[in-house]
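Hi R.,

As promised on Friday, here is the backbone we talked about, encoded as structure tokens. Could you run it through your design pipeline when you get a chance and send me back a sequence?
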């Protein structure tokens, strides 16, 4: 497993790898591969706008993802240059976006987790 990779535990909980181990092959985890392309009209791939003092991440670019009790974005996170990780948890009824007022980097990866459709990533 790699740093910041997501995995589903046997109980259904989602975990993120902070520090990879050397014997992960022996561990019972289901790695969650992030999806990167939307096929349907509903948009999940995070869209990153660079601002003067950080990054605005929206889910999706033109049409907003629903934020209903039964279907919503649970969190949005960005990883800057592989060594800074920022996360915003969301609730139903909130906007499906997050503003991260953080130092800029050269390489930004954005991820979001939909309670129905899983993990999505933009690189
Ligand atoms: Fe969804």
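Update: got your reply. Pasting your designed sequence below so it's all in one thread:
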């Amino acid at each position: 497993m790699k740093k910041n990779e997501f995995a589903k535990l046997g109980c259904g909980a989602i975990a993120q790898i902070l520090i990879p181990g050397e014997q992960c092959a022996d561990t019972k985890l289901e790695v969650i591969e992030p999806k990167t392309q939307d096929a349907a009209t509903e948009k999940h791939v995070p869209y990153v706008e660079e601002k003067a003092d950080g990054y605005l991440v929206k889910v999706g670019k033109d049409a907003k993802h629903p934020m209903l009790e039964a279907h919503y974005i649970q969190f949005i996170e960005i990883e800057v240059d592989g060594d800074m990780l920022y996360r915003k948890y969301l609730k139903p009824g909130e906007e499906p976006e997050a503003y991260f007022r953080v130092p800029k980097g050269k390489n930004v990866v954005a991820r979001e987790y939909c309670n129905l459709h899983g993990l999505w990533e933009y690189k």
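One thing I noticed while checking it: The pocket of fe (ii) ion is lined by residues 44, 65, 71, 114, 116-117 (CB under 6 Å).

Thanks again,
M.
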